[in-house]
Design brief:
The protein is of the alpha/beta class and about 280 residues long. The protein is built from 7 helices and 16 strands. Strand 2 and strand 3 form a beta hairpin.
Length: about 280
């Protein structure tokens, strides 16, 4: 197969739009094997923080910036994610039901007004392949993309501004990863305090939270491609990838230790990604 299919040749104009008219793609197909028994019976995006799946937290964060149109790429145990949204309206609103007629009357509607497309993208499909399979939903302009296992307090509006300013195919949010261990702070040899999870200095990694143009689909060959490898590397080589540096809160949920940390932040009222008001 000729490799020049990856060469960026088309011109994709970025429309002058706001986040209110954009889709957010969330990749939800992974196995989540490093979360041990947490994902034996449920998919990783359904692991709960404060009684709600991490997927809900991510969507709620986007919604705070006006993004309410979602495309969910399903894989492992995707039927449970479908079931969650199928029952979402009835479980998140107050209502009365007449047991004879079955008539339902809502007392108070409190659930979010989201448009959620739930798409099976295969059990073994890699991240790039999942994006490729969503092509029919992504042809109408700029869209956002993230993973279903990380939360942040990134400014979505500023991310979009950065993307529109450089006019290229892709913008990736660059974040500083938390150090693996806590840090001791000294005065001489005296330990004065412990700093929990300091950021690694002078290191930037892919924090997810992309803004993309449909042209990125040309860089993905099929199901076996990881988005983070050949597609992104070739987009970068063609000068079509720019970064938005975010120096604020970011935390993924890759293992049990990180899950516990996110739960502790939520329980203690210190969840930096909780920017919405309670209903």
């Amino acid at each position: 197969m000729k490799r020049n299919i990856f060469k960026y040749k088309k011109e994709y104009a970025i429309r002058d739009i706001t986040v209110n008219y954009m889709k957010a793609v969330i990749l939800c197909g992974g196995l989540g094997t490093r979360l041990a028994e947490e994902t034996d019976n449920i998919p990783k995006p359904m692991v709960e923080i404060g009684g709600k799946p991490i997927l809900w937290h991510i969507m709620k964060y986007y919604s705070n910036f006006g993004v309410n149109d979602f495309v969910i790429a399903l894989g492992y145990k995707g039927e449970l994610i479908k079931d969650f949204f199928h029952k979402y309206h009835i479980l998140n609103n107050d209502f009365a039901i007449n047991t004879k007629s079955g008539k339902v009357s809502e007392h108070r509607e409190i659930s979010e007004e989201w448009n959620v497309n739930l798409v099976d993208t295969g059990l073994e499909t890699m991240t790039g392949g999942r994006i490729k399979r969503l092509g029919r939903w992504l042809q109408d302009g700029t869209f956002m993309l993230t993973y279903a296992d990380g939360v942040s307090n990134i400014n979505i509006n500023e991310l979009l501004k950065r993307h529109k300013a450089h006019g290229k195919l892709a913008t990736v949010t660059a974040v500083r990863p938390p150090a693996r261990y806590g840090e001791m702070v000294f005065e001489g040899d005296k330990v004065v305090k412990f700093s929990e999870k300091p950021k690694a200095k002078d290191i930037w990694i892919n924090g997810g939270y992309f803004v993309l143009e449909p042209g990125v689909l040309d860089y993905i060959e099929g199901d076996a491609m990881s988005w983070e490898r050949e597609p992104l590397e070739r987009i970068s080589k063609d000068g079509q990838l720019f970064a938005y540096r975010h120096d604020g809160f970011w935390q993924n949920m890759d293992n049990v230790r990180e899950l516990r940390y996110l739960r502790e932040l939520w329980a203690g009222g210190n969840a930096a990604w909780k920017v919405w008001r309670e209903e």
